[in-house]
Design goal:
Length: about 100
């Protein structure tokens, strides 16, 4: 099953950009596998709810690490993930991860 996750990128105590990532979940034997298609981040868990949570945490860790090294935005752009205009519908939708300086 495919879903999207909104990546809220923060700078100076405010959301400065929103990126939309594609995630895929599927069962492998008795586990659920979740992966972010753009970042290559993956994890597994016993339930789809657990794998969603763990994948969101893994995405946040990966992007925050890249942000601390100073190349998160460049990496996202290189992987075809463009910043979207900040809209109320993106901010209030389910499935988001907050990263950046104030995350």
């Amino acid at each position: 099953m495919l879903e999207t996750v909104n990546l809220l990128y923060c700078e100076d105590n405010a959301i400065s950009a929103i990126y939309v990532l594609t995630v895929r979940y599927h069962r492998e034997d008795d586990k659920w596998l979740g992966e972010c298609l753009e970042l290559g981040t993956a994890t597994f868990a016993d339930t789809v709810e657990e794998v969603r949570q763990e994948l969101n945490e893994a995405i946040a860790l990966q992007v925050n690490d890249m942000d601390q090294l100073g190349f998160a935005r460049e990496y996202l752009a290189d992987h075809g993930v463009q910043a979207l205009p900040i809209t109320e519908s993106l901010l209030t939708s389910k499935g988001y991860v907050t990263v950046g300086a104030t995350a």
